[in-house]
Design goal:
Length: 401
């Protein structure tokens, strides 16, 4: 048996391919799209049964020709059967009409009139089948074009997703005294969320989280511009306010008034045990004080990036102690909704952080995601990004034995 098998045949069972006792392949009778439907034998059986029913009725009614009733089975045949079979059935219907209607008819009809009547019926039925065949071919061509465009779009989206992943950190920063873990899960193939941790020196790192207004490819492109800008600015100047101002100018130049970026950037110094930060319209990060069991919110102090021509911000700071936990997130977490329309919210997020404060940064990040996913039924309507920083200063300063 040949190894060259039609793609529609590969993987099919013998009883699916051969519906006739003589062993005639059913796929050679049905159209390719009809052959993929189930049950495969139904269109052919229906057409043949309808033709037989019309032929029998045409035989019984001698006072009136019912040849045009063959339009029904021929229409179905034109939709489901191959083109050659459909046109062949026209000849068969005309032959059936002549045999069953005229052969033993008590009426004496002139031969010329019979020929004219059959020929006109043949032309009419052929025209009907031709029109339907052309319509089906156009539909198949349109479906094929749409499928090709869809496949091309999916490839482009996957390529965009690969490029987007390049802007996310690939490893964990080697900053003594800090344990950092982050994740980003786009709601679609690509997303508008971004996070990063950029090492400045042996004891200082910059933490960044951002959320572009909107979703999809356009948000992902603006996210990529934001990520590239933050990387350049982090290596250019240590003044975070100037970083934000320049980034605002750069993002405003490549986006419209409806596209903006919420951004929270913080710089943690493990020697001084402090964090300076700027929150540009982003969700307030949570600072959990392990010793007191309280939360400090790192609220916004200036408008989002790209929303106004000038960015007037304030630099804020917080002292850190061993055991403190920082949780950065995007609104995809807190706005995850259940079936009743209730949002996960800050209270549930805070409770999750409190109960998991002794976990590692990786496990706490996973715990927050799982809590939001369980609450919403794993149905997130927006990109989800979580970044957890644990302060293990005492552990870092303790000499190894």
């Amino acid at each position: 048996m040949s190894d060259l098998v039609h793609p529609a045949v590969k993987g099919s069972r013998p009883d699916e391919l051969y519906g006739l006792r003589e062993g005639i392949p059913l796929l050679s009778v049905l159209r390719h799209d009809a052959a993929s439907s189930r049950p495969k034998w139904l269109p052919l059986i229906f057409v043949m049964a309808a033709i037989a029913a019309v032929a029998y009725a045409d035989h019984l009614v001698v006072s009136l020709s019912l040849v045009y009733l063959y339009t029904l089975p021929l229409t179905v045949g034109a939709i489901f059967l191959r083109k050659e079979i459909s046109y062949g059935l026209i000849v068969a219907c005309i032959a059936f009409h002549y045999l069953f209607h005229y052969f033993d008819s008590p009426r004496n009809i002139h031969l010329g009139l019979r020929i004219f009547h059959n020929f006109s019926a043949f032309l009419c039925l052929t025209f009907v089948v031709y029109v339907i065949q052309r319509y089906i071919e156009r539909q198949e061509s349109l479906v094929k074009t749409i499928e090709q465009q869809r496949d091309s779009l999916l490839k482009d989206v996957e390529l965009a997703a690969e490029v987007q992943r390049l802007f996310l950190p690939s490893g964990k920063p080697a900053i003594a005294g800090l344990e950092i873990a982050g994740m980003m899960l786009p709601a679609q193939g690509v997303g508008g969320d971004y996070y990063d941790y950029i090492p400045i020196d042996a004891h200082t790192t910059q933490i960044v989280i951002a959320d572009v207004a909107g979703k999809g490819v356009s948000a992902a492109l603006l996210m990529s511009a934001t990520a590239a800008g933050m990387r350049l600015e982090a290596n250019r100047n240590r003044n975070m306010l100037q970083q934000v101002e320049r980034l605002n100018t750069e993002i405003g130049a490549v986006s419209d008034s409806e596209k903006y970026v919420t951004l929270l950037v913080g710089e943690i110094d493990t020697n001084k045990r402090t964090m300076h930060y700027v929150n540009c319209g982003h969700n307030p990060a949570l600072l959990f004080r392990a010793k007191t069991g309280t939360f400090t919110r790192l609220d916004s102090s200036c408008p989002p990036i790209g929303l106004a021509s000038e960015e007037i911000c304030e630099l804020s700071s917080e002292d850190l102690v061993a055991g403190d936990v920082l949780v950065f997130y995007t609104d995809g977490v807190t706005e995850a909704a259940n079936r009743l329309g209730e949002e996960f919210g800050m209270e549930r997020l805070s409770a999750t952080v409190r109960s998991g404060s002794l976990l590692s940064a990786e496990d706490l990040m996973t715990s927050i995601y799982n809590a939001a996913a369980d609450f919403s039924g794993d149905d997130f309507n927006d990109d989800v990004t979580i970044l957890v920083v644990k302060c293990n200063f005492d552990r870092a300063s303790t000499p190894s034995s």
